[in-house]
Amino acid sequence: MKTVDSEKKADKPAEPVNSAPAVEEKIDFSKVKIEPLFEETVDFETFAKSDFRAVKVKECEAVKKSKKLLKFVLDDGSGTDRVILSGIHEYYEPEALIGKTCIAIVNLPPRTMMGIDSCGMLISAVHEEEGEKKLHLLMVDPHIPAGAKLY
Q: pTM of the full predicted structure?
């Protein structure tokens, strides 16, 4: 016996199945140089004071009169937009970052740069490759909601 719901489902076109991810570019890590690890340790209580959150990029634009700074307007899950400035324009065009899910420390005191208060810091990975500095903004799965706390 068919239910009304099963008839409705039969009329719907099948939803697309997620295809396998594209093959990632092979990276030769033998040419990568990273900074040495800190020798000083931080106790857990000090580390736990840093509030790492997933943030969604709502807007991103170059800061006028700055070659390095991008101004991010972020959804941090609080219901109020958060502005963070980051000196990564050399590595990213602002339009390419809109809609991305990134990681930020959100409990740093505001810091004024170019007349704009930056309320936090986006997390990036930095290394050197064949004498050239490389930077990758840490971006995570878009299914992670804005405001999700990282532990």
A: 0.79
